[in-house]
Amino acid sequence: MDNEKIKRIDELTALLSEASRAYYAEDREIMSNFEYDKLYDELAALEKETGIVRAGSPTISVGYEAVDSLPKERHASPMLSLGKTKSREELAEWLGDKEGLLSWKEDGLTVVLTYQNGELLKCVTRGNGETGEVVTANAKTFVNLPVKIPYDGELVIRGEAVITYSDFERINAEIDDADAKYKNPRNLASGSVRQLDSAVTAARSVRVIAFALVSAVDKDGKAHDLAHSMSAEFEFLKQQGFTVVEYEKVNAGNVVEKIGDFEKKIISNDIPSDGLVLAYDDKAYAESLGRTAKFPRGAIAFKWSDETADTVLREVEWNTSRTGLINPVAIFDSVELEGTSVSRASIHNISIIKELKLGIGDRISVYKANMIIPQIAENHDKSDDLIIPDKCPVCGAEAVIEKAADSEVLKCTNEECPARKLKSFVHFVERDAMNIEGLSEMTLDKLIQAGLIKEFADIYRLRESREEVLKLEGFKEKSCDNLLDAIDKSRETTLPRVLYALGIPGVGAANAKMVAAHFDDDISAIRAASEDELSAIDKVGPVMASDIYRCMHDENFLAVMEKLLDRLSISKRVNSGDSSLAGLVFVVTGSLNKYASRAELKEAIEAKGGKVTGKVTGKTKCLINNDVNSSSSKNKEAKALGVEIISEEDFIKQYLE
Fold first, then answer.
1. Which of 6, 303, 352, 656 has the fewest Cβ atoms within 10 Å of its own Cβ atom?
2. Which of 87, 97, 98 is nearest to 259 (CA)?
């Protein structure tokens, strides 16, 4: 089959889907109706000719499905794990005189896909290797998966459902609440595939990377002849329209060199991976080797060597956040990692505690994820006797375990918890919210303890209590007046800042802008909106819509909001109509000279229709960094991907003036 035709199908599917989203969801046109119809006809003709139809194709309508639970199904053959090694030389010995295929070990959720008569019949997760969950409705929303293929027999393949780093960054960028952000692409992919509502899966941009052909049997029951070659199987899967894992043919003489080539690509690889897989290309030989009790002998996994250190868990510290989440932090004997001394690591949630089977005094291995964030890699003792508190460590109220973002979390039930109150004030004054300079967490704590602020509006009454503020430790005439001036300056603000500052669950700075823009900066219209109307706003969805609606009908929340609004001057944003940066993606790093902060530069870019993300990818237009020649990780990523690096001043001249 002509690979150019498959490539064109992918291009047209993506382009037409973007055009539909722009027209129906964003009230803008990126192409004329005539051009859309012409491209639509071209896509339909190519799909008919090749027999390949992507899940996201505008020529089909895949209805979303919601279920109460996911049915279980036993796999026809067990899905075994692979034996592992971290020795490159061992892989050369393992190959011997045979040829092999070296490929990425993608980091997501393994699924088994079955096609009959050219159509997707079912998709089942790996589960425990013996039994998985049926997620067929969700699979039909995977962005790169063909729901129709030219092969008209029965085809069974295995693939890894993944979320790319760029999509992960995009999804997290829309969640400004640090507690609600997803921890890594793998967990997000796993949770997205196993959603009970396929509409949620569809919003997550899940992709499938095929890595094995299980069977291909024609209508007469005859196995498809692929010369018992794994590389031939991969080429066959490409012809069916599947995205196949990147691979290289290797032998004992060059496998170590090829591993080095893969290692160089890690920085620019947008698909999460946790190592490589080496398999014999000769399938008959691989199958003749059989398997151990746990592993097949025809393939082996190579894991990158992290710098780890063994230590002893001494304590778990529990910290209450502004949303009431009580976050666990591991305290252990200090160790050296990547040149620094480390004695603490976030455990993130209760699910990870249970998975690691932690107990005080356990011997644990720790490492730095991405060479930055300390994490627990392994628990050697697994005593599994860590006591999870049933009371908030700050206020003593009941603490309960809840389900959130596909994980179990511990939460304080007291809405008036001092820790929650302090953190909510910290959030209120931060840069993307009310942006009150000088009002630190320590200062806020003093003001709360002194009874000078009990709710947000009280901050704007502090000038009336100037003499009381001056009595607090650390305040002099000048520092007090500077703080009061900063508070007065923040009175002139915008509705998106206020919505974000109020701390509505799940509503980040970006979401607040979209909600405010949808209602033309009219808070009365937001209060009067139905859940359905809120849910229809781009990037809002039913869960966030429900939270906004609940807050806008909660007497206590409304009372706090009304008192605050009485003290503020809300200005409507002026739409200049300039969309010169529409469709362009930028990354900002380092210190700035012209703009006071990255947030201000981000607002200037967004005002012209551009987008700012945190990760450099192939889609990035340019990296803005005043230290153009620095050896920072972002500069390295940009150079590896051929992305232009320009200074702030040059960026302003080229894109903003």
1. 303
2. 87
Residue 550 to residues 468, 499, 531, 546, Cα–Cα distance (Å): 37, 14, 9, 6
Q: Under CATH, which number does the domain 418-490 receive?
A: 1.10.150.20
Tell me whether residue 532 is exposed, middle or buried, using C-beta atoms within 10 angstroms of its C-beta: 0 to 12, 13 to 18, 19 or more.
Answer: exposed
Q: Determine the distance from the C-alpha atom of residue 340 to the mean position of all C-alpha atoms in its chain, rounded to a whole number.
A: 28
Which CATH architecture does the domain made up of 585-656 adopt?
A: 3-Layer(aba) Sandwich (3.40)
Q: Which of 268-282, 489-503, 507-521, 523-537 has the lowest mean pLDDT?
A: 507-521
Cα–Cα distance, 493 to 285 (Å, whole number): 70
Cα–Cα distance for residue pair 565/457, rounded to 1 Å: 8
The CATH fold assigned to 495-570 is: DNA polymerase; domain 1 (1.10.150)
418-429 helix and 441-449 helix, angle to the nearest 10 degrees: 130
Minimal CA–CA distance to 337: which of 317, 364, 319, 316?
Answer: 364
Task: Respond yes or no: is residue 105 known to be catalytic.
Answer: yes
Average pLDDT, the chain: 85
Whole-number Å distance between alpha carbons of 51 and 455: 62
Residue range 229-260, pLDDT digits in tens: 899 999 999 999 999 999 999 999 999 999 98
Closest CA to 605 of 620, 626, 627, 590: 620
The class that CATH gives domain 3-54 is mainly alpha
Domain with CATH 3.40.50.10190 in the chain: 585-656
- CATH second-level architecture of 309-412? Beta Barrel (2.40)
For the segment 104-129, the average pLDDT, to the nearest whole number, is 91
Listed in order, the ranges of the chain carrying CATH 3.30.470.30 are 72-302
φ, ψ at 381 (rounded to 5°): -95, -35
Which tokens sit at 124?
């089942």
Question: Which sign does the torsion angle of CA 183, 357, 161, 375 carry?
Answer: positive
User: How many angstroms separate the CA atoms of 182 and 460, rounded?
Assistant: 34
On whether the pTM is more than 0.90, the answer is no
Residue ranges of the chain that CATH labels 1.10.287.610: 3-54
Tell me: the pLDDT tens digits for 258-294? 998 998 888 778 898 888 999 999 988 988 888 776 6
pLDDT digits (tens, 9 = 90+) for 579-620: 788 888 898 888 788 887 777 788 788 878 788 877 788 788
118 Cβ partners below 8 Å, 6+ apart?
Answer: 51, 148, 149, 150, 151, 152
pLDDT digits 0-9 by tens, 469-504: 898 888 889 889 999 999 999 999 999 999 999 989
Question: Could you give phi then psi for residue 412, rounded to 5 degrees?
Answer: -75, 135
**CB-based contact 621:586 (threshold 8 Å):** yes
Q: What is the CATH number of domain 72-302?
A: 3.30.470.30
* 385: amino acid identity, one letter: D
Q: Which residues pair with 624 in a beta bridge?
A: 588, 646
As a whole number of angstroms, the distance between CA 567 and CA 563 comes to: 7
